[in-house]
Amino acid sequence: MTTNSSLKAIFFLKDYQGSMSSVGSVPRSIGGSKASLTSVDSKNEPFRAGQRKNLMTSIAEDEEARDQTGDTIPYTIRITTGQASDAGTSANAYIRLFGQKGQKTNLIPLKLMQRRRFEPGNVDTFSIQARDIGELDVVEIEHDGQTDADSWYIDGIRIEMPTNGRAYYFDCHQWLAKNKSDGRTKRRLQVQSGNQSSYRPRKFKIYKHHQQSLFCFV
Q1: pTM of the prediction?
Q2: Could you write out the DSSP letters of every residue in the chain?
Q3: How do residues 21-78 score in pLDDT, each as one tens digit?
Q4: What is the pLDDT of residues 73-131, one digit of tens each?
Q5: Does 34 reside within a domain?
Q6: What is the Cβ-side half-sphere exposure of residue 40, based on CA atoms within 13 angstroms?
Q7: Phi, psi at residue 145, to the nearest 5°?
Q8: Considering the domain boundaries, does residue 140 fall inside one?
């Protein structure tokens, strides 16, 4: 004798307040109806792209907050966008730094303060505070854009570490784009041998406040 049975799986979602679902259905709050898994609804695509951006931004902000709990130092990041008229992007951008001994920072959001996009030919400067990883060796730079308008061409990146008076240069000269070049929106760049310099940093002080390290130049 055979019996019909169904296997149910419970989804444990962080902060999810809706009803649980069996294997036979998918919660609409996750990504639409069950049919959307097998067919693409162009009307919902901008909404899904917004979900991807929100998720990536949330991950970066969570990691940035965790970075502040350990020993941190200031970094100055300068990103040069290519000169072509379509080289800029308004996508959310992120960077991660790697040291020579395997240390790394968490994913750091690059937030433009006075503009809404990386403009062609511009050098955008970010003063951030992140985990001390020692001598800088590799950077990963990426964005969350999905369209042609989000394509970004980076000429290069310069990162300064005021604590040791060193500046590190990373050549890129590549697209970060879904629909150009090799379709990648993330690049891993290695500092070139001898592609470093020393400079005289301005003096700075580090203050501890509410478990965060704050720095200012004096």
Answers
A1: 0.63
A2: -------------TT--S----TT---HHHHS-GGGGTS--TTTHHHHHHHHHHHHHHHHHHHHHHHTTS-EEEEEEEEEEPSSTT--B-S-EEEEEEETTS-B---EEE--SS-SSB-TT-EEEEEEEEE--SSEEEEEEEE---SGGG-EEEEEEEEEETTTTEEEEEEEEEEE-SSSTTS-SEEEEEPPTT-EEE--PPPEEEEEETTEEEEEE-
A3: 433 433 443 344 333 333 344 455 555 556 655 666 666 666 555 554 568 999 999 9
A4: 999 999 999 999 999 999 999 999 999 999 999 999 999 988 899 999 999 999 999 99
A5: no
A6: 5
A7: -70, 150
A8: yes
On whether residue 122 sits in a domain, the answer given is: yes
CA distances from 183 to 54, 89, 117, 142, 145 (A): 21, 15, 20, 12, 11
Quote the number of domains for the chain. 1
Q: Is 83 left (phi over 0), alpha (psi -120 to 50) or beta?
A: alpha
Domain holding 196, by residue range, is 49-202
Whether residue 178 lies inside any domain: the answer is yes
For residue 110, the domain's CATH number is: 2.60.60.20
